[in-house]
Amino acid sequence: MLPVLYSFRRCPYAMRARMALLYSSINLELREVLLKDKPSSMLAISAKGTVPVLLLPDSQVLDQSRDIMHWALAIDDPQQWLNEELLDSINRLIDYNDNQFKTHLDQYKYWERYPAESQEFYRAQGEVFLALLEEHLDRQSYLLADRISMADIALFPFIRQFAFVDKNWFDQAPYPKLQIWLQGFLESPLFLATMKKLPPWQEGDSPIAFGWQM
Q1: Rg (Cα) of the chain, in Å, rounded?
Q2: Which of 137, 172, 167 minimizes the C-alpha distance to 152?
Q3: Most exposed residue of 33, 84, 119, 205, measured as fewest CB within 10 angstroms of its CB?
Q4: Contact 8/30 with Cβ under 8 angstroms?
Q5: pTM of the model
Q6: What is the DSSP letter of 47?
Q7: CA within 13 Å, CB half, 187
Q8: Which H or E run includes 61?
Q9: Going residue by residue through the chain (214 aa), what tens digit of pLDDT does each one get?
Q10: Angle 119-137/150-165 helices, nearest 10 degrees?
């Protein structure tokens, strides 16, 4: 029995989990879901009702994207994304992304839902993190070293989403290193394979395989 991943490819949390699973050469059954029509089998194993949700062959359930990434990298991490020397720095960046930047991203992208301030105000709040990442990239090719770490993969989907709220603005914003970093991931075989479009899964559908070896 293969692991089963409930996912929505455009969700940044699901995206980073999928990238880690693919990188670690883990073959699994992929169930692409519609967030407005969540399958009962997913809700039965994870009441939180958000993606990603990974059901393992031993019936263990991982329903946090960081846990899924750690699980995958513990199985196979050929390029040492989870380098022990960088672990504290990795966790700090991901914590900031998940606990602060994600709030500013949502307010910027869906600013009509937050009428207290303008869209430009919310974008400026998010730019604090963009400026921090630009400083990191001014020192090396990736966020924490001259090679990819888990932090790059964990943050990339959220920076992608922020950039595409207004891509014209982002492309001329004063973050040249971040723009290059983002474009590199957008063009990477790993990201392109991760974003393969699939029809929404329904109960009774034949399994759809996901993985480099499939």
Answers
A1: 17
A2: 137
A3: 84
A4: no
A5: 0.96
A6: T
A7: 6
A8: strand 61-62
A9: 899 999 999 999 999 999 999 999 999 999 999 989 999 999 999 999 999 999 999 999 999 999 999 999 999 999 999 999 999 999 999 999 999 999 999 999 999 999 999 999 999 999 999 999 999 999 999 999 999 999 999 999 999 999 999 999 999 999 999 999 999 999 999 999 999 889 999 988 999 999 865 4
A10: 150
> What number of residues does the chain have?
214
**What is the spatial distance between Cα 106 and Cα 114, in angstroms, rounded to a whole number?**
9
Count CA atoms within 13 Å of residue 30 on its CB side: 26
Chain centre to alpha carbon of residue 43:
21
Tokens matching residue 36: 């407005």
Asked if 143 contacts 133 with a C-beta cutoff of 8 angstroms, the reply is yes
Q: Distance (Å, rounded) from C-alpha 161 to C-alpha 24?
A: 24
For residues 147 and 149, give the distance between their C-alpha atoms in angstroms, rounded to a whole number: 7
The alpha-helical segments, DSSP class H, found in the chain are: 12-23, 40-45, 65-75, 87-96, 102-109, 119-137, 150-165, 167-172, 176-186, 189-194
